[in-house]
Amino acid sequence: MNMDAARMNARTQVFSIGLLNWKSMSSIAVLCILLGASFMAASPTGGIVFAGAVSAGLLGLLGSTVARARVVLTDSTIRIGVLPYRVTLPYSELLSDQAHQVADGDAVRLKWRKNGIGLPGLCVGHFTTRYGRPVFAAVSGSRNRVLIPTRRDFDLLVTVEDAAKLIAEVRRRQHGCARVGGR
To answer: At what angle do helices 47-68 and 22-42 cross, to 10 degrees?
Structure first.
C-alpha cells in the first residue's frame, strides 16, 4: 500500500480532475516528437539516443502528472494537483460560500503561466487570469470548472466531473471544521 492510500480513510474524498483526455495526450505527444526532432537535428550522430532519452523522460513526467492529478478532501484540508504542482490548504483558508461553478466563457480564463504546465487540455500550476486575481489551476478544459476563492493571494480553479458535489462537500467540510474548532 502506498503512502497516499495509507492516508486515505473513509472520510477522505477524491475527485478526478480529468487531465487524461485527447487534448492533453495529443499535446504531450506533439511536444515529445518536436523535442526529439530538434535534438536529432542538432546532433545527427548520437542525437537519436539523447533525443529518445529526453523525450521518454518528458513523456514519463507529463504522463505521471496526467494520471495522478486530483482533488483530495480530508477532514481538515483540500489538496489539489500533483507534485511538483500541488497546493494543500486548510478549510479555514477557503471562502467556500463564494465557491461556484464557472460558466463557459466566463472571465475566469487562464492568461499567463507563472509556474506550472500549460498545454491544451492540461493546465496545472499558478496562472494569472483575466479577472485579475491569480489562481492555482488544475484544469482540463472549460467545462465543469469550479472557482474556490481563498484568503491567500490566489484562488483555486479546478475541473471535476461533478462540480456541484465538490462545492457542496467543500462547504460542508469547512463549516464542520468551524464548528469543531469553535468548541
So the answer is: 160
Between the two ends of the chain, the Cα-to-Cα distance in Å is: 36
- pLDDT tens for residues 11-59? 888 888 876 677 777 777 787 777 777 766 766 666 677 777 777 777 7
8 Å CB contact between 101 and 143: no
CA distances from 58 to 36, 80, 166 (A): 10, 22, 31
In 139-182, alpha helices (H): 163-181
* 3-class DSSP assignment, residue 22: helix
Q: What is the pTM of this model?
A: 0.78
Integer-rounded Cα radius of gyration of the chain: 19
